[in-house]
Specification:
elongated; mainly alpha; MetI-like fold
């Protein structure tokens, strides 16, 4: 009897494909061109990435070189400003524009690498929790609830105090504390997918659990994951800036936007440009990522079509 069921299920497997995406390759570009915010966000993001990659070639000054005689120069368009220092200088005479250019590298590296770590952890735990259920699901969800009950910033501050400062440590800390949202998302998607016909057919045909999760379940939740991951990059950039602002993130002589904000807070009343321009850089970068994430959501979510 089992052999007959298996024989009947096997020919049906090609028809019960787990690939439900029917979008055409050029459809995303057409939607992007129609979406003003999506196009603007992508252009802004590509520009920021290009600037960060070309930092050694386009930065007019050494971002760590201090010149006390030139400290707190205003932007070039204000009285007393200099064209050589377009956005002015900080309290140590360092060029703000050059520091913003080099700071973009830190923000983007931390943003994308931390999200990659969080995503891998979240996908693995979400797949296990949603597919196996029972005590596996109970344990993972209780741990998830415990992480949700405490603000991420407190976890990150604690880990940074224990492990010490540094770019690698910062990426690791933000990565291992940001997996909760991905786990919940993937678990919910797996719960809705695991009882579909093509998954049942794969089980009947003798496919192992790992193959079913990777080949049949995972592709069907990747669109939602990509959208959440894209939007999370902006959140991670803000988290990095917050930690650096508090003195627990990137340490001098390395440059970060959060560190620039921290340096400029004492000059807010007299030299507004020291903190304003790094803050604008963070805002524009996060907005660009949000615009791209909204476009991805509109393109990848079939319910919005």
């Amino acid at each position: 009897m089992a052999e007959s069921v298996q024989a009947e299920a096997s020919p049906a497997l090609p028809a019960l494909s787990s690939r439900t995406d029917t979008r055409k390759p050029g459809e995303g570009l057409k939607r992007l061109l129609k979406s003003k915010t999506g196009a603007v966000g992508l252009i802004m993001l590509l520009l920021i990435v290009s600037i960060s990659l070309a930092a050694p070639y386009i930065a007019p000054h050494d971002p760590a070189k201090a010149a006390i005689a030139l400290k707190l120069l205003p932007p070039a368009w204000e009285e007393g400003g200099s064209r050589e220092y377009m956005l002015g200088t900080d309290g140590l005479g360092r060029d703000i524009w050059s520091r913003i250019i080099y700071g973009s590298r830190v923000s983007l590296i931390v943003g994308f690498c931390s999200v990659a770590i969080s995503g891998l952890i979240g996908i693995a735990l979400g797949l296990l929790s949603g597919y196996y259920g029972s005590w596996v699901d109970a344990i993972i969800m209780r741990v998830t609830d415990a992480f949700v009950s405490i603000p991420n910033i407190l976890f990150m501050m604690l880990f940074m105090l224990v492990l010490g400062e540094g770019l690698g440590t910062l990426i690791f800390v933000i990565g291992i504390t940001g997996w909760v949202n991905y786990t919940r998302l993937v678990r919910g998607e797996v719960l809705s997918v695991r009882e579909r016909d093509y998954v049942r057919a794969a089980r009947v045909s003798g496919a192992k659990a790992l193959r079913i999760m990777v080949v049949h379940v995972l592709p069907n939740m990747m669109s939602s994951f990509i959208v959440i991951a894209t939007l999370s990059v902006g959140r991670v950039i803000i988290s990095e800036a917050a930690l650096s602002f508090l003195g627990l993130g990137i340490q001098p002589p390395a440059v970060s936007w959060g560190g620039m904000l921290s340096d400029g807070r004492q000059y807010l009343a007299t030299s507004w440009w020291v903190a304003t321009f790094p803050g604008l850089a963070i805002t524009l970068t996060v907005l660009a990522i949000i615009f791209v994430g909204d476009w991805l959501r509109d393109w990848l979510d079939p319910k919005l079509k």
